[in-house]
Amino acid sequence: MTETIEQKCISKGVKLTDQRRIIARVISDSKKKYGESDHPDVDELYNRVSQIDAKISIATVYRTVKLFEEAGILTKHDFKSGKARYELNDDHNHLIDIKTGEIIEFVDEEIEELQKKIADKYGYNLVDHKLELYGIKKK
Amino acid sequence: MTETIEQKCISKGVKLTDQRRIIARVISDSKKKYGESDHPDVDELYNRVSQIDAKISIATVYRTVKLFEEAGILTKHDFKSGKARYELNDDHNHLIDIKTGEIIEFVDEEIEELQKKIADKYGYNLVDHKLELYGIKKK
DNA sequence: TTATTTGCAAACGGTTTGCCGATTA
DNA sequence: TAATCGGCAAACCGTTTGCAAATAA
């Protein structure tokens, strides 16, 4: 397994508190408990965190995910739904079922390559990218 | 030139009012007046609309862009900036300069094809997609 | 000890909505 | 005329923030 969130915090100089450790654990456990394509929003994280320590406030959850995002630990997604959703920083794309909201993650080398090539063509170095496909399940 | 917004409204059964006509015109004129990569947010649209008719309220602008979006006339973008931005519905992608915020539009047949292929591979028909590249200008 | 963090509640900013008079088809 | 729309201001909702007490290093 790769570095834990706690290890990443230490190596990035992010101070650890009980609250942050709990939030980190909830995020790390998310995929195990809720399936591969779990992308909780802050409310949902707050619910899960509350079950471990009911005294943690939602403001702390907001502050923590922002902190983790800035430290490059989490990735924030907006999709088409109003609220921001978070997941561990990892380089993949999303295929979203517009009927059910189900999210499928995928990586495709060919697309990664093409993206770099396109940025290059316009005189840019690619530093980030976002690809979302919206689809309807075939019968 | 292709259909105007007004023509699209008529063919989609969207009732036309003075306010909507003005908003439509402002959007149509956007690229001409403000450059190829103009993606105004609602505030900015409201400013431009106000110069033509100061009595149009921002609520109407909100209602109208939403209406146009639902009619498939406009596309809403979120990028990384809090507020929603709009542009005429057209099938292209965005390359965003993370230093300056400049937006470059591009289309790439190869990427379009790949996207369809990927959706297909997971058993989906592609109905929409979003590709954003974030880059830094090369020296 | 000193800087940072947390919880609380209030503020914020973009967006939506209820009401009711005005306008469209 | 019937149905829809627009202006206003208030409500909404996700997110941020000021403050004072609590805590990490």
Description:
Two copies of one chain form a homodimer. Helices cover 44% and strands 22% of the residues of chain A. Chain A is an alpha+beta fold and 139 residues long. In chain A, the strands form two sheets. In chain A, strands 4-3-5 form a three-stranded mixed beta sheet. The longest helix of chain A has 17 residues, at 18-34. In chain A, 23% of the residues are buried. Chains A and B meet through helix 5 and strand 5 of A and helix 5 and strand 5 of B. Strand 5 of chain A pairs antiparallel with strand 5 (124-137) of chain B.
List the helices and strands and how they pair.
2 copies of one chain form a homodimer.
Chain A: H1 5-11, H2 18-34, H3 42-52, H4 58-70, E1 74-77, E2 85-88, E3 93-97, E4 103-106, H5 109-121, E5 124-137
Parallel strand pairs in A: 3-5
Antiparallel strand pairs in A: 1-2, 3-4
Helix pairs in contact in A: 2-3, 3-4
Chain A binds a DNA duplex (25 and 25 nucleotides) through residues 15-20, 41-43, 55-60, 62-63, 66, 82-84.
Considering the chains and any ligands shown, give keywords for the structure.
alpha+beta; DNA-binding; homodimer; about 140 residues
How many whole angstroms does the radius of gyration of chain A measure?
A: 17 Å
| Helix share bin of chain A | 40-55%
The major beta sheet of chain A can be summarized as: 3 strands, mixed
Based on DSSP secondary structure assignment, what is the total number of beta strands of chain A? 5
User: Number of DSSP helices of chain A?
Assistant: 5
Beta-strand proportion of chain A: 15-25%
